[in-house]
Amino acid sequence: MSEVKKTKILNYINVFRGLAILLIVAGHTMQFGEIGSLTQRISVEIFAGGTALFIFISGFLFQHLSGKYEFKSYMSKKWTNVILPYLWTAIPGLIFCFTMPIRYENTLAGLNPIAQIPMLLSVGRIHNVPTWFIPMIFIFFLSSWLLIKLEKKGVLYKFLPLFFLITIFLQRPELESHMLQDLSYTARWFEYVKYVFIGYMHFFSMYVFGMFCSANKNIIDKFWQYRWFYITLMFITASLNVYSGFNGGWTNGTLSKIFLTIIALAYLKHYDDCIISHKNLNKNLDIIAKYSFGIFFIHWYIFFIYNLVFNLPNVLPVTTSIPITFGYVLIRFIAVTLFSLLTLWGIKQTILKLNPESNTRSFIGV
Question: Staple partner for 150: which of 156, 276, 329, 336, CB 3.0–4.6 Å?
Fold first, then answer.
């Protein structure tokens, strides 16, 4: 039990957290190819799907730090460190929604802004695309007491195979602005609510799997032992998903990310001492990890501004060659990541200058 109650964040988990946010940023900035083309399907399969890793690490850390769990204090901390920064960082998205609704794809445009605000904040995805995650993770927060209770009774992890079956067969719905044009505003909002709840059910396995790996950390060594098996499964599921999607069939991008999670965890733990020994590398990875939640909150705005300045679509078409287009999206990924870090650092320093006692995490997640 001492390992479960240990509150120190493990270095390999810290690095994993940083890599997870980089994959989320890559999923938004590095897609290229004509929509529906094989190239675009492959780019989506490679770069998108970081949410699965982010939810896994959320479950891992929840269990790892649950030694002194108490529901009221837990929810109080989540209000301060998750909900408040979500609300503060929503301000730019709300401004974009109201000032350039067409370019920003505000599907509630036309409603009174006062009516829009609670609808936007309750679902996340419209004003700041990645933050649909927040109402979804809030459901996990509300479920936390039940997860702890089931874990203590020794029954939670017995249901993992069932949870993974739900992940496999319950697809995440596609939800783009053009799909909602014929619906009423209320019906549009309900589509986003449904998206959040389906996301919760779809990713429930990854959250519980994170808890399982935290409670049974020695199993990560088994992942390393059988790493080539998991690597093979990752490539098989990724290839099948691309093939099926390209031919208009069933798709589920989370499957390959389950195996990517296992592989990344295995490699990071196995080479943990090596990473720690390279102090500059570990320091930079630690910075990304510490800023990960802040990057999550604001990178979509930086991405939107970047595309606005250079007149680019979210998914870059291949106009010359695939290597050159890949270079363009790679530059965009690096630029969005760096500007997100610099913006967060600047805001953090400004807040601390105004009030050195401020808890900047409650404003920007850092």
Answer: 156
